[in-house]
Specification:
Distance between the termini: 11 Å
Helix content: 40-55%
Low-confidence stretches: 389-398
Shape: globular
Strand order of the largest sheet: 3-2-1-4-5
Mean pLDDT: 92
Largest sheet: 5 strands, parallel
Number of helices: 14
Structural class: alpha/beta
Number of strands: 17
Length: about 500
């Protein structure tokens, strides 16, 4: 994997190779898109039939729903679910370098708007004003925010403005809540304040503070994490202290740490990682799913909703929301490490919340095919708002929490093609891996292709998949070449490039 210290010609070759790969597969992808449209036209699809059936009902009241972040899988998945449920869907997103996002071309959208991205120089004013214009022009009833990691707080600001200056209800936490949950240190402090379990965590703003923790009598292992968003160090999972004192000092000396750039030292927990996605409306959890996680998660499998782990993570989520003591509305996603202690009688599992993402999670794709149920969960926000606006409290009894029903397993074909087949093939030719390792990767890719579901492709809506791999990514690789920018990894599902 290339990083910031890799020579520019290797980054150039990396981008050129990926653009060339896109061109090579263009004829096949184009054929697949046309075949999908023909098949959908002659045979039809459940999504279209369901939408037509729902909209034919005289009692159905379609809402206008704005979904931001439709270039990412989570935004596109929600837009498709709302479309399936009969609603009018408007999409919006940032389009850096002028490269169109894949969701712009989805059949689920009535209209798409390009939004200006918040910047350090101009702040979020232009973004919020543009968002508000869309809300008013389209008479939006609900704004469903599917923000990325870099714009979560700005969406909190936008929520307050949109709800104050229009009749639109935002599925987004306010600024204070978003900021508190977004930052690793403040989330841990808040969780501890609420009386919920947390791993040992220390705020550090100097190397001396780091060494003081590392050489305490507890003799624990720790991982350092930047409090803010820093792509260059996000994947660094180095265990501290290192094997020798000099190795520890050398590693810490390389970390850019100061009072302006704080870090956290978090207790290392040797256990499996899990993530969750939940929808919270007025302090009640309406949707929930949990799945195994990883540092860069590109394969999604839902835990059975009746499993002990899933129930425990749901219980934590509900307890966190209940103890927060305020009417929270937004998407809430937790990352957990599960510590397993085996005794003579049984195995005891301990949940350790390590991070919180106050935004929609890609795991929402696991609700595919549940448009009506998902839509009803979001419609609670409008019903509650209108009831309270009329001077009445909620008259809706607590509903059953929506969980995925027979969810598919998800992968992203472009990601797996490169990481499981093409790049291992190059490594095999260079003598770095054996042919058996390459064959295992090919076998895994074939299994995903045959039995899993691509996170972007839908037979009734195939164009976003084509745009993603033959317009969006090549466009960004070319832009990075022209601007001489370097990247180390990409997340195809969130369209995030890790700049280095």
């Amino acid at each position: 994997m290339l990083d910031g210290t890799s020579p520019w010609h290797l980054h150039l070759a990396q981008n050129a190779a990926l653009i060339f790969t896109s061109i090579i597969f263009l004829p096949f992808s184009t054929y697949l898109v046309f075949a999908s449209y023909l098949l959908s036209f002659f045979i039809g699809h459940d999504a279209h039939r369901e939408r037509k059936r729902i909209r034919s009902s005289p009692t159905f009241d379609p809402q206008t729903i704005l979904v931001t972040g439709v270039g990412m899988t989570k935004g596109l998945a929600l837009a498709r679910l709302f479309y399936e449920a009969g609603h009018n869907v408007v999409g919006a997103d940032f389009e850096p370098y002028g490269v169109p996002v894949c969701g712009r071309y989805s059949r689920s959208l009535n209209k798409f708007y390009r939004l200006p991205k918040p910047t350090a120089e101009d702040g979020s004013t232009h973004y919020i004003n543009a968002l508000l214009r869309v809300v008013k022009r389209e008479h939006v009833d609900i704004w469903v925010s599917c923000s990325g990691v870099a714009s979560a707080v700005e969406d909190g600001e936008a929520k307050e403005v949109v709800e104050r200056r229009s009749n639109c209800r935002a599925i987004q936490f306010d600024v204070a809540t978003t900021s508190m949950l977004h930052e690793k240190d403040t989330f841990i402090h808040e969780t501890e304040r609420l009386g919920l379990p947390v791993p040992e965590t220390h705020n550090v703003t100097s190397r001396d503070a780091v060494h003081k923790v590392l050489h305490s009598p507890k003799r624990r292992s720790y991982i350092m994490k930047s409090v803010g968003v820093d792509d260059a160090v996000r994947g660094d999972m180095t265990l501290l202290p290192r094997r020798t004192l000099s190795e520890t000092y050398n590693h810490v000396a390389q970390i850019p740490i100061s009072s302006q750039k704080p870090w956290v030292l978090q207790q290392f927990i040797k256990g499996k990682e899990y993530c969750t996605h939940s929808l919270v409306v007025d302090g009640e959890v309406k949707m929930f799913v949990a799945c195994p996680s990883a540092e860069l998660l590109m394969h999604y499998e839902a835990l059975p909703s009746d499993s002990g782990l899933s129930r425990a993570m749901l219980a934590f989520t509900k307890e966190f929301v209940a103890r927060s003591g305020k009417s929270m509305t937004g998407h809430l996603s937790f990352d957990f490490l599960v510590d397993e202690v085996v005794t003579e009688k049984a195995a005891q599992l301990t949940l350790n919340p390590i991070e919180c993402n106050p935004r929609a999670h890609t795991a929402v794709a696991l609700f595919s095919g549940m448009g009506q149920d998902v839509s009803k969960a979001y419609m609670n926000a409008v019903r509650e708002s209108r009831m309270n606006g009329n001077g009445h409290g909620s008259c809706f009894k607590e509903e059953q929490i929506i969980v995925p029903q027979n969810p598919a397993q998800y992968y992203w074909s472009g990601h797996d093609l490169v990481t499981l087949v093409l790049w291992p093939f190059v490594e095999m030719l260079m003598g770095r891996i054996k042919i058996s390792n390459w064959m295992r990767g090919c076998s895994e890719f074939l299994a995903h292709l045959l039995f899993w579901k691509d996170g972007t492709f839908e037979i009734w809506d195939p164009l976003p998949w084509w745009i993603l791999y033959h317009v969006y990514w090549p466009g960004h690789f070319l832009a990075y070449v022209l601007h001489r920018r370097k990247w180390s990894r990409i997340n195809v599902s969130t369209t995030k490039m890790f700049v280095c």
